[in-house]
Queue: 3 jobs
Job 1
Amino acid sequence: MPPIIALDFATADQAVAFVAQFPAASPLFVKVGMEVYYAAGPAIIRQLQAQRPLQIFLDLKLHDIPNTVEKAAAQIGRLGVAITTVHAAGGSRMIAAAKAGLRAGAEAAGVKPPRLLAITHLTSSSQAMLTNELSVAVPLPDAVQHLAAVAQAAGADGVVASAQEVPLIRAVTGPDFLIVTPGIRPANAAKGDQVRVVTPGQAAALGASAIVVGRPITQAADPLAAYNQINQEWSQA
């Protein structure tokens, strides 16, 4: 799939205007995260869908008791988005509840249910944070691998993880499990608050299913050129 552009904007108008820069005929996959969704609500999804053909990754990272997550997921399932997320740390019952909610909501709305991804550990996480703040004693890659196996067993379609952990995840989940990888930075680009980063070409070589790229595209002087360069490196690696 093409690189997923993270629409990390404060308003729906900014997100819609940004998407308008891209040719209508080109495949486009965008991520709507918490910032703009909390500002605009489901209306941002409808605005983007009405603007042009595209796929939407709604990244709200649900994490609550299973009953609450199932009901929230049912609302997401109605929206016609392609992918959405929960935190794997919520456990297998919560992941299964999210899957059930997505299916129920999509069926009620007559749309295809979103694929469900479980967040393993954020690409801003480090071993020191995991050990000192979360009291997780195992190495970070092992923790990610374990959460991926739990997520698959609970019915998730894939996970979100650093591309650095893709080979470990593949070893316990198989080739058809989606591994969507944020923390993508072109060579010589600033890391920002990311810790476990790779280039688009490295992500492809490691076997990632998809990459998510935000600031290197959205804050570029020429976003379309930046996107094309990243897409070329990703697709030709």
Job 2
Amino acid sequence: MAAPSTRRSVVVGEALVDVVHRAGSGPAAEHPGGSPLNVAYGLGRLGHDVALLTRLGDDARGRLLREHLDAGGVRLPPGAVDGDPTSVARAEIDAEGKASYEFDLVWRLPDVELPEDVALVHTGSIGAAVDPGARAALELLRSVRGRATTSYDPNVRPAFFASPAAALARVEEFVAASDVVKASDEDLAWLLPGQDVDAVARRWQALGPALVVVTRGGEGAVAVSGAGTLQVPAPRVDVVDTVGAGDAFMSGLLHALAEHDLLGGAALPRLRHLGLRTLEAVVGTAIRSASITCSRAGANPPTRAELDG
């Protein structure tokens, strides 16, 4: 197995600052956020050579994000910092714990040519929903497919779509351009209310991905590949919170595929013929990554030593 650090990965999508105000708790707290940022940070902590293709401002919040990414070993490409403000997600948490969100978002891709030896290109969430960046991300996936593994997590934010039908049309464009797709049962419940999770996963896998995984919270995950459908349970965990758990699952899943030499264009035939035993090991690693994150506060994915321990 090749060491993860020898495999170049590129994550495409938003980097933003979460500004969280809880009723009765005083001033708002600010934290690095954005699903793609979290996935890149998770891969970096697991020892991968990873770059985040994003944009952020030359301001205090942009510096907060750069310091966070530096601490996780994540590189930013040239042109990532520009003159517009860093994107912000403002969350108001009421006395009952319910959150309402407002976004102040600027999303476009810097003009960067990917290296020839890139093994993985991942995108998702707002970065795959809001134009012009989303359209550029889709074209990027299509352009590298075959020489790199492409992966996608819709991580749907309903506020950015006119309707579930409009969202589904966009989501399935990305599904068809991806080799690996991860979604949550909550995503599917909003996009396709009342439809069976396993059936949706099988339909999406038929659109072109080699692997589709749907997370089901404490029930684990269902995975669909050419070898069939597999249910993988989750261990019992004392949950502190679930912030960043889905992103930790995604980074753990991609890490596990790298560990089994299943990333990169040359590995695609092996990925398409993935056996159920290997599939169970790969998804089990992703579940373990999410479980560790749930056991502590915030979007705090595991290190390689913690995941292997």
Job 3
Amino acid sequence: MSSRNVEIKAKVRNINDLIERANSLNPERSEIIKQYDTFYNVSHGRLKMRKFELCIFQNNTGELIYYDRPDTEGPKVSTFKKASINVSIDDLTSVLEEALGIKNIVRKVRKMLLVGQTRIHIDDVEGLGHFMELEVMLHDDQSPEDGENIANELMVKLNISKQDLISGAYADMLKK
């Protein structure tokens, strides 16, 4: 079964202000994660292998993630499926590269904060700069509008303006 979230992505103008505002929301969890995302060529949606490093519980493990979402600015619904990988990430990456070809690789250091049902990601993306993402995980009884309302409230608290919103994925931005 697929999971759903409402997400936004924005360019960060003042990283220190954003971190201070995010920490003031009293996150239930906060950690720094170094991630390498390898995107593969697929006919629709996006498929990526995420390799974790410098993460307390997930060092040198990973996830295979398929997701589909519109490339629009502002809050948008994303459906996704994830599979945890506890075998050799390098071997599996090699098989996927051979079968599908690599579309792009994104290297980032992510500060992840959990606030209620929302993951706040503050990303330093190699070759692109600083960005933030909100991922409001929708419960089965919640509508996309419920998630959009939560995202919009957090945008105000984090001082994220609508002109800073971006569409697409980091992998797409790196290709430009």
